[in-house]
Amino acid sequence: MKIASVNAGPAKAVDYTDAPSGTTGIDKRPVEGPVRVARPGAPGVGASGLSGDSVCDLRFHGGDDRAVYAFAREDLDGWERELGRRLANGSFGENLTTLGIDLRDALVGERWRLGREVVLEVTGGRLPCRTFAGWLGERRWVRRFTQAASPGVMLRVIEPGEIRGGDAIEVMCRPGHDVTVSRLFRALTVERAALPGVLVAAEWMEREQLEIARGYAAKYGV
Predict the structure, then answer these.
(1) How crowded is residue 28: how many other Cβ atoms within 10 Å of its Cβ?
(2) Nearest-5° angle of CA 192, CA 197, CA 198?
(3) What is the CB-side half-sphere exposure of residue 90 using CA atoms within 13 A?
(4) How far apart are CA 205 and CA 222, in angstroms?
(5) Strands across the sheet containing 96-99
(6) Cα(26)–Cα(121) distance, rounded to whole angstroms?
(7) Is 212 helix (H, G, I), strand (E, B) or coil?
(8) For the chain (length 222 residues), average pLDDT per consecutive 10?
(9) Residue 196 and residue 23: Cα distance in Å, rounded?
């Protein structure tokens, strides 16, 4: 299990986002050399956990509970086949493109060591939005991504430091529950009746995740 690439990107103005600033940092590209990872600050105030990376809409992105976003290269490969187009590392706006780890089975609250210094903790999955759909330009993208239930993982920074592409990922410890990222994601979106069963993971969950999910479900009807 390793980091295939560390990805970052500047803010860009677009016309397909409902962010107050009208900008997005979703266009992330692999970075050569080491990248500093640190706690960015409270949700709604802090931005990305990666040095040199931009997060624009602080209502739904960035902050300590969403400091780093990881998506699996294997899942990008699957979407390549379905969409019939090349998806480079960083194409889904992820900070870390991983290799050799099934992120759907990551437990909410499990901790990873990346390289020699950095420790991150899983807080949940990514909820797709209009900006993501506009960036990819695929019809019904929010619904399609949701139904796949493979949202990647959001991570908080426990121990800061430097990481780079090729660094090993080690699962250090896992909590004593069975709430995976995929199970939590489904409960927040398409299987709302299952929500009570995932609350055992509330100690580790992103603080605003339930509020975001309610608005998301009302807006997109999924």
Answers:
(1) 27
(2) 85
(3) 16
(4) 21
(5) 29-30, 2-8, 96-99, 68-72, 153-159, 118-124, 111-114, 169-173
(6) 22
(7) helix
(8) 97 84 91 96 87 86 92 98 97 97 96 97 91 92 95 97 98 95 92 84 71 55 50
(9) 36
